[in-house]
């Protein structure tokens, strides 16, 4: 259900760890705003990353929440970047409905020394997996730009050919009245796309890779205006815990009339489990299992959530 955003109207209920879909019908624009707080702090707090890497992970969470939340039912969206730069591998995935996680592999010294050039030459891939009954979609493009937002916009320009503007932000903020002391990591993002052939009564942005039947209007005057307005958003606005997503959408587009849809709650959830890891190790040979033993145990640490699993080697050997 959609509702016009007015100066007096405000969302009720959860205002953080959500994605808010919205539409500006007069400009032929659909958009989403991601506001992630406890989720971002949980993902980053599980590891001891330098700030530049924590910020990148936060941005990847916001990007994946923006794109993955277009999946309404069962399905999975994965963003991957592989480069020869300080960050060799970055992945974040969204499992519907609303479960998100991320992981980054990097060279600490090189990342700290080159905070503005974390990506080298490489590729970015977006994957949509809707289950065994549907075809898996994957789009891969060369990794371009100095930021994750630049790389994602290059993807939409080259692969989807849909006018897209994207802003991502991640940083630390103090939460007034919060239970945790000190600054907490937050992340946020704003995505708009020019889809004028789609009416204003649907609450979804078509998932990437599924727009084959959409006819894009050739008149980009509307898009130029929408893009200019979206370009005024500031990082501090995307991260401000006192500025709800609907207030931000109103600030950007109130003169054109903006409609908000039901917010989508997002939480942190890792898909690792003791049973899954044990089943994986059981496929190894006894010799390989012996090589994994340390102090009489086989210890496996999940790269995503840092959960530690310990096994008796005798229970793993065939």
Describe the structure.
The chain has 318 residues and is of the alpha+beta class. It contains ten helices and 16 strands. The strands form three sheets. Strands 1, 2, 3, 9, 10, 11 and 12 form a seven-stranded antiparallel sheet that branches. Strands 8-7-4-5-6-13 form a six-stranded mixed sheet. The protein is elongated and about 70 Å long. About 7% of the residues have low confidence.
Give the arrangement of secondary structure elements:
Elements: E1 3-4, E2 18-24, E3 29-36, H1 38-45, H2 51-68, E4 76-83, E5 87-95, E6 99-106, H3 108-113, E7 122-129, E8 137-142, H4 148-160, E9 164-173, E10 184-194, H5 221-230, H6 235-239, H7 245-253, E11 259-260, E12 264-265, E13 267-268, H8 274-281, H9 286-291, E14 293-294, E15 297-301, E16 308-311, H10 313-316
Parallel strand pairs: 6-13
Antiparallel strand pairs: 1-11, 2-3, 2-11, 2-12, 3-10, 4-5, 4-7, 5-6, 7-8, 9-10, 14-15, 15-16
């Amino acid at each position: 259900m959609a509702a016009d955003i007015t100066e007096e109207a405000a969302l009720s209920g959860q205002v953080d760890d959500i994605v808010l879909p919205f539409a500006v019908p007069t400009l032929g624009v659909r958009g989403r705003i991601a506001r992630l707080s406890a989720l971002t702090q949980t993902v980053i707090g599980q590891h001891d990353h330098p700030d530049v890497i924590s910020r990148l992970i936060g941005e990847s969470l916001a990007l994946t929440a923006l794109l993955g939340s277009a999946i309404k039912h069962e399905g999975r969206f994965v963003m991957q970047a592989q480069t020869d730069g300080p960050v060799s591998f970055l992945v974040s995935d969204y499992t519907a409905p609303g479960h998100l996680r991320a992981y980054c592999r990097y060279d600490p010294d090189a990342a700290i020394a080159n905070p503005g050039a974390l990506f080298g030459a490489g590729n970015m891939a977006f994957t949509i997996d809707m289950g065994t009954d549907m075809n898996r979609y994957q789009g891969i493009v060369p990794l371009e730009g100095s930021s994750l937002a630049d790389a994602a916009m290059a993807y939409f320009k080259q692969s989807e050919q849909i006018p897209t503007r994207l802003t991502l932000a991640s940083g630390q903020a103090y939460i007034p009245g919060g239970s945790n002391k000190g600054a907490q990591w937050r992340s946020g993002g704003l995505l708009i796309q020019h889809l004028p052939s789609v009416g204003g009564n649907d609450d979804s942005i078509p998932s990437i890779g599924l727009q084959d039947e959409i006819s894009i209007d050739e008149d980009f005057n509307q898009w130029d205006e929408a893009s200019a307005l979206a370009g005024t958003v500031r990082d501090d606005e995307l991260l401000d815990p006192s500025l709800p997503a609907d207030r931000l959408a109103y600030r950007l587009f109130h003169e054109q009339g903006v409609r908000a849809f039901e917010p989508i709650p997002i939480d942190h959830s890792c898909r690792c489990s003791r049973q899954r890891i044990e089943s994986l190790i059981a496929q190894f040979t006894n010799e390989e299992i012996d090589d994994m033993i340390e102090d009489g145990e086989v210890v496996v640490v999940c790269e995503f959530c840092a959960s530690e699993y310990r096994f008796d080697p005798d229970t793993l050997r065939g």
